[in-house]
Design goal:
The structure holds two protein chains of two kinds.
Chain A (H helix, E strand, L loop, with lengths): L2 H8 L2 E4 L8 E4 L3 H7 L4 E5 L5 H9 L3 E4 L7 H10 L2 E4 L4 H11 L3
Parallel strand pairs in A: 2-3, 3-4, 4-5
Antiparallel strand pairs in A: 1-5
Helix pairs in contact in A: 2-3, 3-4
Chain B lengths: L1 E8 L12 H7 L5 E5 L8 H6 L4 E9 L5 E5 L3 H12 L9 H4 L3 E3 L5 E4 L12 H10 L3 E4 L8 H5 L9 E4 L2 H9 L3 E4 L14 E3 L6 H9 L3 E2 L4
Classes of the chains: A alpha/beta, B alpha/beta.
Chain lengths: 109, 232
């Protein structure tokens, strides 16, 4: 599924990055080590972590995009790094449970 | 009384400026008596700072990231002890090679400020040690554990929402709000710059009511709460 479709279906607020990329999996977690150990490539990551280190984790695991939940904002550095590394960023007022459920309903696994 | 900034990163931290070298830190820390020199998950760049900043008290330190993404500072009297902890941590970091170009250079430096090597372990990542294990490791090797920037990202309050039951008695805060929360729980409270660039050095400091200019005296001061923050 294309990130653009996910964004439109969930009404996500776009922050930066390409929207034409395909994602197959979803992963919901806030602990960086868990994400590093378990997330698959072509994943859309649902989290409340906004520190710059999330971009390093995404790059290493092959995560394509990140949805930041609960109305949190990304640091400026995080956005800059995401642009450099080609990671697409979204945010939403919804919590991780709701976002995850809607992603599952859209077909991400 | 001695003025202290106990949380200063070096050019070995991937997120720190490469100008965080002994000569530059010396230039930017005039007026400070005590510096804590550290990096993420290691003390392996501290030695040249001790040599160059010999007129100050340099506390060998490190900032360990637990598996819960909580940052804990370890302050040591002896560099050898903090280096031992650093070596132990190498086996607890993710088994990947650090990409210096993408995620920031991790540089070893000598006394003249010359870069003498790279660290390829990914220092900016969490270890696989639980918070309790991190605290125990610091205590076992004669260090003093301190919760870092508790109310900010990677701080224990930010990550876990509460101060968990641990032997930690000292917390670092970055704001008056954090100060009040930590004081209410009975902690000794310090504040420091968490400097990642030369300009950051000394932007938050404390006064220590120390007997003499030694690491032991500084650490005793911390343990006994003889600390004055901007909010006291």
């Amino acid at each position: 599924m294309k990130l653009k479709e996910v964004m439109d279906e969930l009404g996500l607020k776009y922050v930066c990055g390409e929207l034409d990329k395909e994602v197959v999996h979803g992963y919901t977690c806030d602990l960086l080590s868990e994400v590093m150990g378990n997330a698959k490539p072509d994943t859309l990551w649902v989290t409340v972590q906004s520190h710059m280190n999330i971009i390093a984790v995404a790059t290493i695991t092959g995560i394509r995009g990140i949805i930041l939940c609960n109305g949190h904002d990304y640091d400026e550095q995080t956005i800059r790094k995401a642009k450099e590394e080609g990671i697409t960023l979204f945010k939403t007022q919804e919590n991780s449970f709701v976002v995850s459920g809607r992603l599952y309903a859209l077909g991400l696994r | 009384m001695m003025k202290a900034d106990l949380h200063i990163h070096t050019c070995l931290s991937p997120c720190a400026d490469i100008t965080m070298t002994p000569d530059v830190v010396k230039e930017k820390s005039k007026g400070l008596d005590v510096l804590g020199i550290l990096d993420h998950n290691t003390s392996k760049n501290v030695r040249p700072f001790i040599k160059v900043l010999k007129n100050k008290v340099i506390v060998p330190a490190l900032e360990i990231q637990s598996v819960e993404d909580v940052h804990v500072l370890g302050f040591f009297e002896r560099l050898e002890d903090s280096l031992k902890v650093s070596r132990i941590l190498e086996d607890h970091l993710p088994n990947i090679t650090h990409d210096h170009e993408k995620f920031g250079y991790q540089l070893y430096v000598d006394e003249s400020g010359r870069f003498i090597g790279y660290e390829d372990k990914p220092l900016g990542f969490p270890t696989d040690l639980k918070l309790d294990e991190v605290v125990d490791l610091i205590l076992k090797e004669n260090g003093i554990p301190v919760f870092a920037h508790v109310e900010r990202k990677f701080g224990v309050l930010y990550q876990l929402g509460i101060f968990p039951e641990t032997p930690v008695r000292i917390t670092e805060v970055v704001s008056e709000g954090g100060y009040k929360l930590a004081k209410r729980e009975g902690f000794v409270v310090i504040t420091s710059s968490d400097a990642h660039t030369p300009e950051d050095i000394g932007r938050r400091t404390i006064w220590l009511d120390c007997d003499d200019k030694s690491i032991k005296s500084v650490l005793t001061c911390l343990l006994n709460g003889k600390v004055i923050t901007p909010w006291d």
